[in-house]
Amino acid sequence: MGHPFPIREIARQAGLSEATVDRVLNGRGGVRESTAQEVRRAIADLDRQRTQVRLVGATFMVDIVMQSPDRFSTAVRTALEAELPSLHPAVIRSRFHFRETGPAEELVAVLDRIGRRGSQGVLLKAPDVPGITAAVGRLAAAGIPVVTLVTDLPASARIGHVGSDNRAAGATAAYLVQQWLGDRPGNVLTSLSSGFFRNEEEREMGFRSAMRVRGPGRALVEIAEGQGLDATQYDLVRAALERDPAIRAVYSIGGGNIATLRAFEDAGRECAVFVAHDLDQDNTRLLREHRLSAVLHHDLRHDLREACHLVMRAHGALPPAGPTLPSAVQVVTPYNMPSPALAG
Questions:
Q1: Which helix (H) or strand (E) holds 213?
Q2: Considering only the top CATH level, what class is 57-163+300-324?
Q3: Which residues are in coiled coils (predicted)?
Q4: CA torsion angle 106 111 116 120 (round to 10)
Q5: Residue 184, CB-side half-sphere exposure with 13 Å CA sphere
Q6: In what order do the strands lie in the sheet with 59-67?
Q7: Which of 82, 198, 244, 280 is deepest in the core (most CB within 10 A)?
Q8: pLDDT (tens place) for every residue of the chain, 344 residues total
Q9: How far apart are CA 150 and CA 277, in angstroms?
Q10: Do the first three CATH levels of 57-163+300-324 and 166-297 match, i.e. the same topology?
């Protein structure tokens, strides 16, 4: 396992002891395969981040904890690492803790481990449930600032939130859906990954409120708890289509869009309008293929830069600033897609 990094750096990145890392690197045995994988991931993260920041200067170690489909977690990782050079003179080093689904207790355990091990900050995307709120409070009590990313935990001890105005995004989606459907009849399928993510709840409220004004005769058919995963989303959409033969449009709040489109195709149904969120790999391809009508997107790189600035201010590395403003919502069609370098 060749690498140019000191054992101390690898241990810090992986959150393991130097003795454990030494055993893995020298093949001495007595270490679980999952631990060896953590060491390999740490070396890969260090190598990627060294390319960006050269591992010099005053360093802040920040943990990014997210419950999200892999496609979105990957977009966040890419956006953060693209922003690292802009954060000089401070250097942000990052450890990633990503999971697609599972009970909130698992995320709580991750946050508590970070609290015991230590960190300069946590960027968190998690469901708004009491256990998570309590874990954020324990991190704050330990002097570890928490910034919520994309979806907020307003009742928690987090120091700030970065993301878009979700109610405005939902209302924008309603405007687009009704504008494109026009006078044609049809109901709208609204799809959430989970009812416990506040950002999705706010998008749905914004959409429903605007649709009451713009399309009062249309029924909104809600499905949830597909976790944004194609494997679970397909069955939820097929069941909704069987229950309601009038569904003709989709507002996808939580993802799983490949499965949603496949469910329409397998049912022999037309999806006349499809509005989704975020230019991840799946949605970028679907938009280029004109299988999505529009994607509501916000600049992840901007969000992550602001999140890192909040952590740095919490440690006195930057002067105080005014409140963090929501990211602008962009309506992206096949004809105005940003370049990959800017999609974030």
A1: helix 198-214
A2: alpha beta
A3: none
A4: 160
A5: 17
A6: 91-99, 59-67, 121-125, 146-149, 160-162
A7: 280
A8: 566 778 887 887 888 888 888 888 888 877 888 888 888 888 887 777 665 444 455 688 899 999 999 999 999 999 998 888 888 767 888 899 999 998 999 999 999 999 999 999 999 999 999 999 999 999 999 999 999 999 999 999 999 999 999 999 999 999 999 999 999 999 999 999 998 999 999 999 999 999 999 999 999 999 999 998 998 999 999 999 999 999 999 999 999 999 999 999 999 999 999 999 999 999 999 999 999 999 999 999 999 999 999 999 999 888 888 888 899 999 999 999 987 544 55
A9: 12
A10: yes
Class of CATH domain 166-297: alpha beta
Amino acid in position 64: I
Closest CA to 68 of 191, 167, 193: 193
Which of 159, 150, 154, 171 has its CA nearest to residue 121?
159
